[in-house]
C-alpha cells in the first residue's frame, strides 16, 4: 500500500533546543493515526512541519508522493488541515465561507457549487448553510472547520484537537464523522484525549521529549496480555511473605489482604502457583492494557527526570 505521508528523519531545532528529534513514520489510505504526547513533547512543531507552516532543520516530508520542501504548493494541494482554532470568518455564512475556501483551493469555477454541497452534506451542515458562522454552536463551528479541510477532497487530513470544548453529544458526532472520513482518506488526529484515540483510531504513536517512543496498532495494543494482576489473599498472608517469591516482579499492597502484582507468568500458571502456596486466593483479576497506562509509563518517568534536573539546576543557580 502506497504512503500518503512519508516522514523521514524529521528534526527541528530552536537554537540549542531540539523540539523534534529524528522521527520517521508513514500514513496510508484508511489509516486514522492518533498522535499523542504531553505538553512540550513536540506535537505542535511536528504538525506545523507536516502542514508546511514550519521548515524542518533536517529531514524529509512527502505528501501523496510529492516532496513538501521541493514542491510545497503541489504537496499542500493534497492536504487538508484543521488547526486547534479553526480558521473561520465568522461574519460569513457557512456557504459563503466554503465558497471562499473553494476559491483558495483553486477549485474549478463550474465545480464550486457541487464541491461545497458535498462538504456540507458530509459534515452534516445542511440545516445551517445559510446561517452566520458566529451564530453557530461550538460543535457546528468545528464541523465547518472540518468541511474546509476536506473541501477539495485531499488524500491527507490533519486534525488538531477537533473535539476540544465540545459537549458529549457533539464529541460523539465529530468522532463518527472522523471515522467515516477515514474510510477514504489518511487522517492524523492530534489530541490530548486518550479515550478518543481508542474510540476512533486504528493506529497510535506517542512522542515524548521530541522522540517517538511508542507506535502500535490499536487492536494489537488492546489484545496484548497484561502482566499486571489484582489478587485478594487471606489476611494472614503478609507482604514480606510475598516478596520472597520470585514469580512476582513487583508487588503493591492495596489494603490488608488485596495486592496489585506483576508477574512474567501467564494468568493460568500464576493462579496455579498461588493456589499451590495455600494463600487463600479469593479474587484474581487481570488488568487490561490501556492506552492511558502505556502513555503514563512512557512519559511520566521522563517528566520526573526533567523536574529533578530543573530543581537541581535551580538549586545550583541559587547557590551562586
Descriptive account of the structure:
The chain is of the alpha/beta class and 320 residues long. It folds into two domains: 3-222, 3-Layer(aba) Sandwich (Rossmann fold), CATH 3.40.50.300; 225-286, Alpha-Beta Plaits (2-Layer Sandwich). The chain is built from eleven helices and 14 strands. It has helices spanning 43-50, 72-76, 94-104, 112-122, 138-150, 168-181, 194-200, 218-223, 239-243, 267-276, 291-319, and strands at residues 3-14, 17-28, 32-36, 58-63, 66-67, 79-82, 156-160, 186-190, 203-208, 211-217, 228-232, 248-253, 258-263, 283-286. The strands form three sheets. A six-stranded mixed beta sheet has the order 6-7-8-3-9-10. The chain has a four-stranded antiparallel beta sheet with strand order 2-1-4-5. A four-stranded antiparallel beta sheet has the order 12-13-11-14. β1 and β2 (17-28) form a beta hairpin. The longest helix is centred in the last third of the chain and has 29 residues, at 291-319. The radius of gyration is 25 Å and the shape is elongated. Mean pLDDT is 87; it is low at 303-320.
| Name of the top-level CATH class of the largest domain | Alpha Beta
Order of helices and strands: EEEHEEHEHHHEHEHEEHEHEEHEH
- Whole-number average pLDDT? 87
Helix content: 25-40%
Give the tally of structural domains: 2
How far apart the termini lie comes to 59 Å
Largest sheet: 6 strands, mixed
- Relative strand content: 25-35%
Radius of gyration, whole Å = 25 Å
**Superfamily at the CATH H level of the largest domain?**
P-loop containing nucleotide triphosphate hydrolases
- The low-confidence runs, each spanning 5 or more residues with pLDDT under 50, are 303-320
Tell me the overall shape: elongated
CATH architecture of the largest domain: 3-Layer(aba) Sandwich
Provide the CATH topology of the largest domain: Rossmann fold
Structural class: alpha/beta
Can you count the beta strands?
Answer: 14
Biggest sheet, strands in spatial order?
Answer: 6-7-8-3-9-10
Please report the number of helical segments: 11
